[in-house]
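Thread amino acids onto this structure.
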């Protein structure tokens, strides 16, 4: 392990994990990084990803990273394959850096940003002296993230990789047809809002069309109401379509859980039907 680094231009380090905050895992990783870069600043993107849920982690990262300043380093650990043959990686995509397991966690980032450099983290000089088979977040990813934040070139951290070798999640992209878009529920947030995989850029006039409906074929359930926001006079029990803060079409119930009330799970098919003007 290298000695502490002094740098006046240390980048912010953002953390995303499924560790929760009850145990000491997050604090220990921050301690490791502070020992390498004492002046580092840490931002918790989230530590409440459901355990081992790589897709949920990928979604949280993919909808959040762009709001961080360029140069930020994202330390991401949702790693059900820890200790296996999955590769530990670091890469630059767009203006940001990412460190974590090659297991699909970076799916949405890789889909949106040009990748400049990718390395497999094979240079043990930048790891802790003893690497646990069960906590590589502490022993590999945290020290590497700290060194990147201090300005260490990626090329010094390990073997170069091609972007084509990185693992992607097996997701079906929305299928756009003449009068419909076939998609699925890709995320359910803390409030029970159902987020589809349909971004508004696939139907920019979503609110202007005279008729838009969302069908759940598996349940013969149709959502017909659209709202830009919720007014106090609205029916609180009526599910409605809206556009979430990241631009994806979703289903919500004011002061209630659409997921629970409609009995919809992540991965269920959702078809957006619309008139052709």
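Threaded sequence (277 positions):
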């Amino acid at each position: 392990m290298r000695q502490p680094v002094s740098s006046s231009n240390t980048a912010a380090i953002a953390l995303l994990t499924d560790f929760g905050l009850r145990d000491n895992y997050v604090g220990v990783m921050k301690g490791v990084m502070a020992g390498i870069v004492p002046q580092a600043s840490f931002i918790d993107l989230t530590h409440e990803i459901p355990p081992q849920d790589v897709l949920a982690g990928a979604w949280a990262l993919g909808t959040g990273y762009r709001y961080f300043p360029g140069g930020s380093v994202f330390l991401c650990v949702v790693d059900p394959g820890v200790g296996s043959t999955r590769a530990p990686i670091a890469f630059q995509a767009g203006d940001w850096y990412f460190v974590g397991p090659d297991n699909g966690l970076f799916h949405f980032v890789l889909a949106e940003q040009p990748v400049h450099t990718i390395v497999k983290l094979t240079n043990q000089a930048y790891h802790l002296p003893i690497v646990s088979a069960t906590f590589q977040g502490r022993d590999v990813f945290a020290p590497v993230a700290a060194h990147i934040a201090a300005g260490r070139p990626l090329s010094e951290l390990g073997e170069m990789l091609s972007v084509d070798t990185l693992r992607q999640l097996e997701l079906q992209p929305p299928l756009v047809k003449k009068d419909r878009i076939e998609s699925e529920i890709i995320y359910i947030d803390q409030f029970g809002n159902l987020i589809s995989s349909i971004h508004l850029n696939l139907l920019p006039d979503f609110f202007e069309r005279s008729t838009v409906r969302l069908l759940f074929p598996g349940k013969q359930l149709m959502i017909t109401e659209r709202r830009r926001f919720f007014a106090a006079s609205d029916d609180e029990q009526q599910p409605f379509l809206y556009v979430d803060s990241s631009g994806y079409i979703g289903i919500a119930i004011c002061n209630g859980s659409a997921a629970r009330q409609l009995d919809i799970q992540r991965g269920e098919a959702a078809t957006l039907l619309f008139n052709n003007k």
